[in-house]
Amino acid sequence: MTTFVIRQATADDVALVHEFISELAEYEHLTHLVVSTPASLRDALFGDHPGAEVLLAFADEVPVGFAVYFHNFSTFLGVKGLWLEDIYVRPAQRRHGYGEKILRHVARIAHERGCGRFEWSALDWNTPAWDFYKSLGAVPLEDWTIFRVTGEALEKLGTAS
After folding, report:
1. Can you give the residue range of the structural domain that contains 106?
2. DSSP secondary structure string, 24-59?
3. pLDDT in tens, 12-31
4. Which of 78, 105, 126, 161 qualifies as a FRET site for 23, CA 20 to 30 Å off?
């Protein structure tokens, strides 16, 4: 019988977290967007003002997946929410229920913290993920589009008067 454990990542896990991020980017065909390093992640996740939290999942002490999440806020509900930035299970470890266990773990955290929402995004082409999320009761928000400003555009927007 496999022993499955989910635990909070610590600063000592930063290399593994970066490894998972790199693997996820490869799966999503987005490696060209990865500029994080273990050093930048150490500061961003475990420094004085952590921007997110990370869960690590292990099957028989072998790392199989991770999730990155952080709080946001709903003005309409008047309470905080939880945003799942990334969830990933290594391809060789899929079809064992690990992804569902990780997602349910994050949902439990959202519930225990009194969050009014638990949300995430999925790439349009990733139908296996869409099917998985829908099977757990999640619904896509078809009337919302995510907008993003990065790099030079963010600098211009943030420094213009």
Report:
1. 4-159
2. HHHHTT-GGG----HHHHHHHHHSSS---EEEEEEE
3. 999 999 999 999 999 999 99
4. 105
